[in-house]
Amino acid sequence: MERTYIKDLTASTLYYFRNHDVKSLTSKSKRTRADNLRAALELKTVPTPEPIPGTAIIKVLSAPVLSYAKHVYNGMRKYPYPTPFTPGSSAIGRVAALGADCTSLSIGQLVFVDPVIRSRDNPSDIFLMGLHQGATAGSKKMMESVWTLERWNVGRILSTATRERYTEAHLATMAQFMVVYGGLSDIGLRAGETIVVVPATGGFGGAAVAVSLAMGASVIAMGRTETTLAKLSSKFPERVKTVKMTGDLESDAEALRKASNGCIDAVYDIPPPMAAKSTHLKSCIMAIKHSGRISLMDGIYDDVPIPYHLVVHKDMKLQGKWMYGKEQIKIVIKMIETGVLKIGNLGGVETVGDFTFENWEEALDAADEHAGWGSSVVMRPAEMASS
Ligand SMILES: NC(=O)c1ccc[n+]([C@@H]2O[C@H](COP(=O)([O-])OP(=O)(O)OC[C@H]3O[C@@H](n4cnc5c(N)ncnc54)[C@H](OP(=O)(O)O)[C@@H]3O)[C@@H](O)[C@H]2O)c1
Fold first, then answer.
1. Would you state the CATH architecture of domain 176-320?
2. What is the mean pLDDT of the chain?
3. Ligand 1 atom closest to Cα of 372?
């Protein structure tokens, strides 16, 4: 019984409360065929649990829909997770109830909900609430069994000024900026440096352009689609140059050298699985300067060949990253609150879909359709007025 109780707590934290009811999207099917899971998604009302020590219960106001969420939940993108399962990940919400030991949060406070669940006794066991069970036996065990949304997964945010500047739908996208900051800060990106962001035309790629600029770097935005590259450089006219990815190794590397005057300090790489055979990483390795650093945050599951000798002879550092660290969350919130980093419409990203949980299917379709930088799709409880 205790297990069920705690799982319900997490589900309810993800979604929302109304008259002590919690609604959540739940799937009970096994993912054997692409359509199976999607067909089995259902909107359920479950009891609102009492908060236990160390936890917080959050009433969700707005939650972002990942561009690839449809493919995660229909099984096409083979993310591992146990079923039954409550989809969804980060959110913006208000504190609805607190465990007796919580001292820094207060009821009604606007907060960011972090979906990265970490083991208390092993930092390498991490899973993503409502999305991915992680890569270790421990993370799988955690997602399958008892776990809670810990108090530390709730980021206190949103000064009045921030609240006035952004709608809930805009604020809901902030996890995207935390993800890219995770990689950029791990490679120690510094003001004055030049970084290649590739592909820059995706949702996360565009966020990486914005965060790199906010960190004081100059950006070479590399991608396939010229119209989106042009949109990016018109939104960020200072310190952004663009390079179209042609697939020709030598000419792409030469275009990068030219755009950077021969001095690329770092590369931020965040392509989707479909880009496993793309040549852009090799072009970047060819063009980067000696001692360059590369942040790898790909969604690629296949092996990707790298020019080993160049990595060796250039003393290069390749740094992988999944999500971000707890301290990195606080820094991104500060960057947003101070206006150093602009998100949502101020950062060139328009909310093109704001759906209720009842319309989850349309929400997943819209996020898929509007994948790429410049658009975002969110979901919210039906009774929450769109801001
Ligand atoms: N490491 C982490 O913690 C972490 C966290 C979140 C997400 N991710 C990964 O980030 C990836 C990107 O997500 P997103 O929401 O930004 O996706 P998105 O908006 O759909 O953007 C995908 C980007 O990849 C480009 N692309 C697609 N197919 C390509 C190909 N064959 N060759 C080269 N480029 C290609 C697209 O270029 P066009 O504009 O030309 O189509 C676009 O720039 C996800 O797949 C996910 O796995 C990683």
1. Alpha-Beta Complex (3.90)
2. 85
3. 19
